[in-house]
Amino acid sequence: MELNKKIIALSAVATLSFNAVADEELQDMSDPLAVYTQAGIGYTDKGLNLKVGQAYDTGNPVTMGMHVLELKGFMGEDLGWNGDARKGNDNSVDSFRYRHFGVDLTNGRGSQIDVNMNFQTYGMKDDYSRGETGTQGSASYSFIQALPKMGPVNLYPLAGVGVAFGDSFEADRAGDAQAQDRWDIHGTFYVVGMYGKLEITDKIWLNYNPMYLGTMSGSDFYKSNAFGLDNDTVFAHEAAISYQINPRSNIRYFANWTEHTDFADGDHRIEYNYQF
Questions:
Q1: Domain-located, residue 107
Q2: Looking at residue 103, which CATH number applies to its domain?
Q3: Quick one: signal sequence residues (predicted)?
Q4: I want to staple 14 with a disulfide (CB 3.0 to 4.6 A). Which of 71, 137, 146, 193 is the partner?
Q5: pLDDT in tens, 78-123
Q6: How far apart are CA 56 and CA 36, in angstroms?
């Protein structure tokens, strides 16, 4: 599960600098929690991604907010490089992600609404070899807190809860997951993790964003198989290396994998971002 990410601006009290939306000064694009209007395009192993983000005035001088929408995996058959039909590569959009971020500038505490819809989810095992779960989605709400900066390191712990929904599915006698002709709410889950940044130079930085997810309630099948066949939890990893081309643009390489998926079999992308 891909979790990335340029989310919220946090106040100087939390040892991070920010500017109000109305301020014309550019934001620090290396800050994982910066708020600014932006656009990005990514080249991935499953095709192209497009991202747009819009910072807005909340009407409260001590809060800020931003909407971010991403379309993922289109032109995958023609441009994706993994060539794995089991992962559903075609030229249509594979998934979209919507995030809403808010921050209280008085205490450096943020909130995040994260909605994901996956239109091509094949299989319930690491090798994608069995069954088809159809269109699946999730929505979660999390709190994020900036910690004081420690030399070149910034840490932002996160905790939240969410709900999984989509095409109903069940396992047949062979253990394959087959989509049913209806939607339902499968169950609920929790997520705890962290966004992390390590500054290498004023133009190069690393991010590591580990997340641990587990089921809380729902159908027996969901609680036992939410994160792969016979897996009710998952430890997910996201790592990135970034280069700031100029104050308005950067280029970034991301890798996403889990304890159930090798690094080489995870999701990989190169992304260009521009700040307006």
A1: yes
A2: 2.40.160.40
A3: 1-22
A4: 146
A5: 776 665 544 556 778 889 999 999 988 888 899 999 999 998 654 4
A6: 9
